[in-house]
């Protein structure tokens, strides 16, 4: 039996099994088996592509800007129209499906930041399993900093489908990696420590670990209500955790009442826009900017005025070291101290070390060793 058939057989078994307390354990284990077989199948395909010299497995996009945002949605929802509104790009717009066939980049300039926006071909149900260009689209989505889910005002229910496809390719939107630490060892067996109540028994944790070939390991579970799916995510180590925004396009075709109706049916926050007529585009830019959690850092060269024209755009949580690395690799090596003016400093001109964390609109001077 091939891998695909094995997976199918286990999936069938899960479908046939009623979910209750008595079968929970069994189903958990079957899920782990499927996840492991899928990974094996992925690895085989990758090996085969390499062996046959089978070109690149994705679109050729060079990353640029301070962050990358990707537009994901079904065909004809208005992704290309939106790209053209947000950036200076000119992606082809068509009244028929699958107008866009590759990744088209554009640069959005907003509040001093440069955000790369990627227009993508539309995805359809089964994308994660390889339908259409789905796999290529979704694998680029994994490398983005933010996913914009674009919905057509008349098909808001597609949100579930898109979420399912993203999930299927290993993307976990709007969630953090489960707090589970694995300290692998060469002997000593498995020791499992629950530091929070979980939905999964110690025995199931053990069996899932064994399914993944982990025999000697100290496991520390801090995640509250850890499920078997989350444990599988931890063990699969190819999951991408990233934020998302949902956009409802073509609102020019409906009235306010209709939009409120959508709000109550999809139970998800969204930003209503009309890409074509440029309605609410600035509000969307603002949301994108906020979601990317940028901070602006102004450079002041020793003895000179602060450069307020071109702030350095960093992600929230950036340290002085990150700023140094943005300037040049050699800066860290020659770093002596930095001086800060702004909210992260106790007083203007405070001397700080390389680990100091910056806050939006800080001014910084870096002093190097001579
Ligand atoms: N009424 C209305 N039509 C829109 C809006 N935005 C886009 N359209 C139309 O919707 C159709 C599809 O637009 P595209 O931007 O090509 O859609 P897409 O999502 O890029 O489509 P694919 O590349 O095929 O996946 C075109 O006829 C657009 O003119 C909008 O805000 N309102
Ligand atoms: Mg398009």
Brief synopsis:
The longest helix has 31 residues, at 21-51. By secondary structure, the protein is α/β, with parallel strands linked by helices.
Q: What report would you give on this structure?
A:
With 370 residues, this protein is α/β, with parallel strands linked by helices. The chain folds into 3 domains: 3-55 and 178-236, no CATH class; 67-173 and 240-291, Rossmann fold, CATH 3.40.50; 295-368, Roll (Ubiquitin-like (UB roll)), CATH 3.10.20. 34% of the residues lie in helices and 25% in strands. It has 11 helices and 16 strands. It has helices at residues 3-16, 21-51, 79-86, 134-141, 158-168, 202-211, 228-236, 256-266, 281-291, 320-327, 329-333, and strands at 67-73, 104-110, 113-119, 146-152, 171-173, 180-184, 190-194, 217-221, 240-242, 244-249, 271-272, 294-300, 306-315, 335-341, 350-352, 362-368. Strands 2-3-1-4-10-11 form a 6-stranded mixed β-sheet, sandwiched between helices. It has a 5-stranded mixed β-sheet with strand order 13-12-16-14-15. Helix 6 packs parallel to helix 7. 31% of the residues are buried. The mean pLDDT is 90. The structure holds guanosine-5'-triphosphate and magnesium ion (MG). The site of magnesium ion has 5 residues, from helix 3.
């Amino acid at each position: 039996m091939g891998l695909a058939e094995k997976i199918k057989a286990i999936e069938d078994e899960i479908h046939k099994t009623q979910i209750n307390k008595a079968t929970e354990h069994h189903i958990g284990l079957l899920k782990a088996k499927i996840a492991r077989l899928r990974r094996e199948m992925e690895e085989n395909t990758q090996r085969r592509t390499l062996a046959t010299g089978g070109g690149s497995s994705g679109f050729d996009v060079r990353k640029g800007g301070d962050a990358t945002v990707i537009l994901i949605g079904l065909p004809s929802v208005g992704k290309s129209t939106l790209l053209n509104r947000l950036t200076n790009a000119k992606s082809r717009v068509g009244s028929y499906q699958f107008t866009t066939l590759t990744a088209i980049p554009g640069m959005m300039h907003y509040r001093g930041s440069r955000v790369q926006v990627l227009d993508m071909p539309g995805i359809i149900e089964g994308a994660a399993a390889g339908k259409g260009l789905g796999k290529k689209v979704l694998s680029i989505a994994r490398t983005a900093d933010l996913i914009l889910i674009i919905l057509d005002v008349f098909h808001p229910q597609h949100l579930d489908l898109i979420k399912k496809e993203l999930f299927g390719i290993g993307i976990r939107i709007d969630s953090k990696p489960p707090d589970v630490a694995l300290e692998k060892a060469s002997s000593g067996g498995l020791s499992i420590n629950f530091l929070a109540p979980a939905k999964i028994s110690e025995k199931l944790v053990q069996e899932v670990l064994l399914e993944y070939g982990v025999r000697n390991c100290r496991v520390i579970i801090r995640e509250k209500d850890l499920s078997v799916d989350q444990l599988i995510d931890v063990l699969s180590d190819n999951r991408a955790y990233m934020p998302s925004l949902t956009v409802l396009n073509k609102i020019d075709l409906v009235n306010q009442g209709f939009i409120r109706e959508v709000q109550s049916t999809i139970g998800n926050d969204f930003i209503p826009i009309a890409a074509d007529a440029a309605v609410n585009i600035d509000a969307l830019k603002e949301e994108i900017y906020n979601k990317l959690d940028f901070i602006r850092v102004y450079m002041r060269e020793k003895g000179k005025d602060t450069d307020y024209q071109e702030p350095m755009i960093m992600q929230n949580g950036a340290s002085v070291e990150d700023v140094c690395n943005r300037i040049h690799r050699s800066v860290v090596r020659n770093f002596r101290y930095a001086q800060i003016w702004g909210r992260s400093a106790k007083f203007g001109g405070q001397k700080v070390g390389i680990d100091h964390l910056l806050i939006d609109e800080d001014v910084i001077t870096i002093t190097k060793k001579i």
